[in-house]
## 1
Amino acid sequence: MDNKDTGLEFDQQRIEKLEELRTAGYSLYPPVFERKNTIAGIRERYSVAGHERSEDRITTSGRLFTVRNHGKTIFADLGDQDGKIQLYIRKNDLGAEQFEFFTRYIERGDLIGVSGHVFRTKLGELTIWVDQIELLAKALLSLPEKFHGLTNVEKRYRQRYIDLIVNDQSRETFRTRSRVISLLRSYLTDREFLEFETPVLQPVYGGANARPFTTYHHYLDQSLFLRIAPELYLKRLIVGGFEKVFELARNFRNEDIDTQHNPEFSMVEIYEAYRDYHDMMALTEGIIAHLVYAIHGSYMIPYGVETLDFSPPWRRLSMEEAVHEYTGIDVRSADPVQLGKIAGEQGIEGYEQAESWRECLFLFFEEFVEDKLVQPTFVYDFPVENSPLAKMHRSKEGFTERFELFICGMEIANGFSELNDPLDQLERFRRQDERRKAGDLEAQMLDYDFITALAYGMPPTGGVGLGIDRLVMLLTNHSSIKEVILFPQMKAEQDRIPRGGEDTS
């Protein structure tokens, strides 16, 4: 086979070796291998092994990472998902034919199965004394050079499979991510929350202010949207009588890509009847503190140059308090002309369109405060203009019972006392829809079916959405969301990936 026949850059020498084996009738790519021992299991079982070979045989498998040939003796490193172990291969034990097969056809990167006995070298390294080898899968591409690994950041993201093979830290990051999701699910189910799945393809998008992805269903002859949030469907479940619900959701937002945003991302949304936003703050604090301690064994964890302290209780302050503390400005009573001058000097976008001092408060918060909230901090009581799904504040006119959690300047969670007044919700949807029709690509649609659901009565309810990707960033000490998403969205390589049709969103 010639590389030009594939359009891929295979290692031609490896292709030739594969063809030699095929011609010789060798059984290539066998369908199964009976692995009796994992590398972690071997290490645990023989943790006190001596220098003599064990009497019992072990059989394991994995990828070959290094090969050090010393003539009639070979040392190599075999790895699986749990780690690596050294192999000791002698011509006298393997036999001349198998030894020649190994030296000629098996290379770094190949997947092999081995059998033999365990011992420790004079240097104390646990090693398998191999007497049988089977080739399980021939690698037709060479792994990155062992001392440098895969260091090209873009290639690490585009070809995550290589990154996972050669970078231990990357594998550990995604082990942690898997554990976070498992712990999160257990935390909620242990407290009698029920997990549900709601539609990803939706006829009306809502639950957040974001630009959606649009597609078209030919049989239904209608446009559909990838969900930007599961919120409105989960609240329908509260209307239907379920009182404690959650969903681990994949959401899609047609927005910029940067260190904190990916068009496809993960979050958990949680709703509980007869609770409010104070209860949701307590729940959020409990979940995250539990995860931090379970992963790190401490509430104190490093993040960049910071040491984050997740010991409960966390700091709480209203948005007005936050802006006043970090800017010295009392927006409620400040001179609008002076506020406008400050906004102009700082280049605050959208200030000219602000119709109330509360909207100015929100813009000043985003500009001057968010990035300064390093330790876990709840900011609560948001302007109604920026909170179309939150209940009106019980005592502060023009505000809602909404909070956001910030850590290291990132929004990690967003929660409300949920709006359950159908007439109020209808009016807010109408204002959102007007903004959408006027060109605001992030404004929400008017969801008549959701209003109908509310009209049947939804109990007082607290809800919160928690960003899983950003939380994993914090728990694994990564500053880019691409490091914690297995296959992040990347700009297409012109020579490899078709770009598809025009954007219809």
## 2
Amino acid sequence: MAGEPVALFQQIKDHIARQIQDGTLRAGDRLPSEHELVAQFGISRMTVNRALRELVDQGRIVRVAGVGSFVAEKKPQSTLLQIVNLASEIRQRGHDYACEMLVVERVAATLEVAAALNVRTGESVFHSVCVHLEDGVPVQLEDRFVNPQVVPDFAQQDFSVQQPSEFLVRTVPFDEIEHVVDAVLPTPEQAQRLQMDAADPCLLLTRRTWTQGTPVTLVRCLHPASRYRLGSRYQSSGNPIST
């Protein structure tokens, strides 16, 4: 209704969004703390927390547990893609599929990983690296971080039976997904693992998934551009078309 008062959390969101829009806050800038926003606007911490959570969901800010909230980097983003079972996709083409696990370990979360998984910097998270092959040729290098709070037995799995993504999809039903695609050059180590020239371009698909608002995984899938294409087909409603 016209003249209806704006919810308090929405006022906080709009205030921060305007500062980002007009350049007062730039990418990487740290936002006032929850305590500072509570004092500034004279509202509850729960209200401030909701405003910040919704700004995170919109991709405007990132929150790092124990550190603070920061303005997110602006970056062009592709249309969302479905999560596909790469093994099934390759076999449906009549080709042989194989997965070589290179690393399964626990590591200390970097600032970027901590922000993506909403854990504290330095907190222990799972890390896995594997190469997916089609007819013996590497088509994807998968570098994955997993939130142990959601999947505590990740490192105990036998990934010779099912690959990490297949295990996660079957074990933790996700209800939110984010895909970002970039054109990049591989590092020398990545080029060696993908058996390609380091001067050849790659497509990097970065994926994050959530279950009931909790981050599950951050995974970077690197594809040699000469061997792999990324794409999707959607109805005008935004729903993926089944094939």
